[in-house]
Predict the structure.
Amino acid sequence: MILLRGLALTGLVVVAVVLQTAVLGQVAVDGVAPDVALVLVIAAALVRGPEFGACVGFLAGLLVDLAPPADHLVGRWALALVVVGFLAGRLRHEAGSPVGAVLAVAAGSFIGTSIFALSGLVLHDRAMPVGAMGQVILLGVFLDVVIAALLLPGLLPLFRRLSPPQAIL
Amino acid sequence: MPKRDHGTGGVGALVLLVLASLALITLDARNSSPVDPVRDAVGTAVGPVEAGAATAVRPFKEVARSLGSNRDLRHDVATLEAQNSDLRSQLATTSTDRNRLAEYDGLVRTARDTGYALVPARVVGIGPAQSFTRAVTIDAGTDAGVKPDSTVVNADGLVGRVVRASRSTATVLLIVDSDSVVGGRLGSTLKIGFIEGRGAVGGKARLDLDLVDDAATPARKDVVVSWGSGTGGPYVAGIPIGRIESVYSTPQQLSKQAVIDPFVDFSALDLVGVVVPRGTHGDRKLIHADGEIK
């Protein structure tokens, strides 16, 4: 059962990353596309808590780092999404309502992309002027909220069904 | 904030995974990155899935694109009218064979104008701007003869270069990426300089030109082409890049700076061509310099 759940989770992450680059990248606004992997991580964390959220964040971030056309240092999105997964997991009792979940996505999107941008500045890898990065981050938050409102009603029950009866990892 | 979680609340997992991420970043930052084989493997596995998904949604994309703003639409009407008259004149002069390959006409023209052989490919994946990398995936890889450091063009001009290629897909770094530097040459005076991207795509996409000769002043509307580093280098010579939009100078720098408006629309990339040596054999036909497809 655990293996099956693991496979289902990996499958979901792959679908999210492919959806993001192959489908949503085509309809991006000024190149900014909704971040489905981030929404998936937050949904998992809101249902299962910080530990699970951080693990899904690492898995999803790693795939975003490795899947083409990513060309930045591997590990940067993993780092950002681990933190997002952990923080969203800590919020799971506060963000129980649908509105709370969408707010968690907004905060997670802002924090995640900011961590990614900051790591770029520190590592001198794909750094842009701070103002330009700020614009991208804010537009990203908006698009993530829109996609979260569409996806969360399906994702949250799905993770509840995927979780074991006692909900311990 | 009330803390209702049991025990440490996943702090252990957080610390462990953050350290794992940092270790990965350190590993990948080395010159001969041990992560590259993993990247290749993931590219080989995920690339075809991306290509399939992109093919499936291509018809819907056209619908989505038609929902542009009023201003965009007016601009589109003007462009389409120009294209229409262009196509009409082509229709009258070209053979039926060529008409069937109307979509490839632009690439054929590019191949003929520049004298290079091209591998046709479609863009199947676009990296989000949130990664601050302007790169795309194309559906041609080493099987089609595409190698890292190949030049990528489309009907309008220079698109970028291949940074990594798996069997069926390749990653192309666009010239608008903030890490991209292209050697450029002014069309009128043949002065050379370096062209850097700003990281933005779409209507705001601009490139910065820094001329090597401090005394030279680029003229507005002057066309900039690639300077080229031989057939093996990342950019072949003579590919049109853009038109100079404005020229300015700053007290800190001796040389004149210019802003270039690129010919290529990086937010609507679709069919591109990868420059390969003549006589390359791969899984698809090449577009040759004489306009022939074989």
DSSP finds six helices and no strands in chain A. The mean pLDDT of chain A is 88. The first helix of chain A runs from residue 2 to 23. The helical segments of chain A are 2-23, 36-48, 50-66, 76-90, 98-123, 130-162.
